[in-house]
């Protein structure tokens, strides 16, 4: 399905590798899951995802997203319905 959506021109944002809450997950594990999710979508679509959304993020998630680099945005904040800048 992902390949078909990408072929159609839809944006493929990354929603993580596992469906779990990262609140109590070790930072190293979260980092490895993030790398695996990025690698998987890149392999399937031929392009690295530009957006990130964990949904059940940890205090480390935003910093790890920046550490991975290459993302245009992350959607893990519900503080507003419009995009805005944050310091990391």
UniProtKB/TrEMBL annotation:
Matching SUPFAM superfamilies: Glycoside hydrolase/deacetylase
InterPro entries cross-referenced by the UniProt entry: Glyco_hydro/deAcase_b/a-brl
Taxon lineage: Bacteria, Bacillati, Actinomycetota, Actinomycetes, Mycobacteriales
GO biological process: carbohydrate metabolic process
Naturally occurring in which organism (per UniProt): uncultured Gordonia sp
Record protein name field: CAZy families CE4 protein
